[in-house]
Automatic annotation (TrEMBL):
<feature type="transmembrane region" description="Helical">
    <location>
        <begin position="72"/>
        <end position="91"/>
    </location>
</feature>
<keyword id="KW-1133">Transmembrane helix</keyword>
<feature type="transmembrane region" description="Helical">
    <location>
        <begin position="45"/>
        <end position="65"/>
    </location>
</feature>
<dbReference type="InterPro" id="IPR004891">
    <property type="entry name" value="Mercury-R_MerC"/>
</dbReference>
<dbReference type="GO" id="GO:0015097">
    <property type="term" value="F:mercury ion transmembrane transporter activity"/>
</dbReference>
<protein>
    <submittedName>
        <fullName>MerC domain-containing protein</fullName>
    </submittedName>
</protein>
<dbReference type="Pfam" id="PF03203">
    <property type="entry name" value="MerC"/>
</dbReference>
<feature type="transmembrane region" description="Helical">
    <location>
        <begin position="12"/>
        <end position="33"/>
    </location>
</feature>
<feature type="transmembrane region" description="Helical">
    <location>
        <begin position="103"/>
        <end position="120"/>
    </location>
</feature>
<keyword id="KW-0472">Membrane</keyword>
<dbReference type="GO" id="GO:0016020">
    <property type="term" value="C:membrane"/>
</dbReference>
<keyword id="KW-0812">Transmembrane</keyword>
């Protein structure tokens, strides 16, 4: 079980990093290569599918880790990050400028990365039973 939690933490960190990279570089690619804008990566649905992956890995990894080391505030940080990502993916596009949506996505991703990093370190330090 411990290995599963650690692997899920690593996957979730990777997915969160993908969110940040996507937000920062896709607009640049669309500006430099307009045909890139026609790919699925620039579609809003991509954000939502990426969020599904983040929800599955983050929820599982953080719950399994917190269940072992009893530092439940880490699950709270991760939940806040997921909430920010959810808001950015489903509502921010209509409520704010594109820059605001990107900042929210980056903020949510950073919160998730921090929570997974803490979760992973607690399990690595032997605080998981």
């Amino acid at each position: 079980m411990r290995n599963l939690s650690e692997r899920l933490d690593k996957y979730a960190i990777g997915l969160s990093a993908m969110c940040v990279i996507h937000c920062l570089f896709v607009p640049l690619l669309v500006a430099l290569l307009p045909a890139f804008g026609a790919t699925f990566l620039s579609d809003e649905a991509f954000h939502r599918w990426l969020l599904v992956g983040v929800l599955a890995t983050s929820g599982s990894a953080l719950f399994l880790g917190c269940k072992k080391h009893n530092q439940w505030r880490i699950l709270g940080y991760g939940s806040a990050g997921i909430g920010v990502l959810f808001f950015a993916a489903f509502f921010a596009h209509d409520l704010m400028a594109e820059e605001g949506e990107k900042l929210l996505t980056i903020l949510g991703s950073v919160l998730l990365v921090i929570s997974h990093y803490k979760n992973f370190n607690l399990c690595q330090a032997g605080r998981c039973q």
